[in-house]
Structures are given as C-alpha cells and as structure tokens.
Amino acid sequence: MEIHKYEKAWLVGALVLIFFFIGTIAYVSAVVGVDMVDDSGGALDVDEVSEDERFADPRVEQVGEDEYEVYMIAQQFIFRPGTHDTVDVPENSEVTFYVTSIDVIHGFQLVGTNVNTMVIPGQVAEITVEFDEPGEHGIICNEYCGDAHADMEGLLVVHPEDEWEEMQGGDG
Known about the structure:
The chain is of the alpha+beta class.
C-alpha cells in the first residue's frame, strides 16, 4: 500500500506535535513544578461546616505581621465573605485562603492573579497569594453550579498601607 507524500507529511507533522505536547507537559510537571488541587487544607463534614471553628464565622483574620487568613464558604450563589461584604486586606501582605463549599462544586478564582482552584464539598481548598500592590480583584465562580452561576461573584480589595492603617484605627 502506497501512502501519498502529502499524507506522509501530515502524519509526520501530527506525530511531531503530539511528541511536542507530551514533552511540554512532562517538562512543566517535572522541572517547573505545577501544583495540583490537593487536600492540604483538610476535610470536614459538609453538614457540620457551621460548627467548625474555622468556618462558623467566615472572615479575614490577621495571624502575623503582614499575614492574613481568609475563611470563606462558597454556596449557591454567593461567597461568604466576598459577595455581600468585600474581602479587605492591605498591600504587601501574604494571604492564605481556606475555601469550602456546603452544597455543590464551585470554582474560586481571583481575577488578575494566578489564584484558581476548585471548591469541593467536604474538602478545604488552601491557597496562598502575596498582594504587593493595591487594587481590586473580582472573585468569581468558574465551575457551573446552577441557574444563577453567572451571578456568583464577589470582591477582594487590596488597600494601600496608609488607608489600611486608617481603617484599623491607626493601630494596624
């Protein structure tokens, strides 16, 4: 059976692309290092989220100098905090988000950053980011979670240090 020269060219080109893509994935995984979603944040019973000390009162908490933790619940179709009240942090801070869901799978993405993870009921997603500059970042759900999914959004505000100190009453 004879294969036409153009078919051979397409076949060779396709094989080269396949090997290129496999090589790229292997390189990024082994050398650059890509973190996958894991359960480092822990697990919890979905029915007892409101009794868990971390999530009974979703909040932003200062845990060290320039270190903050955000305990957030994603539920149809809001983020607590985030949707009805903003998540406020100062610039030049390191923020660790602990996010869980009480109903269905959600997504948690901070627009303009590389923060993007799935939020699975019964698991706590943990992700840390440094905010070096003031600004606003939208919080969006990027996993379809129901009819009002497109409206599931919130806001994170990174405040300039002087403004943050004023908000904290001058002792911040």
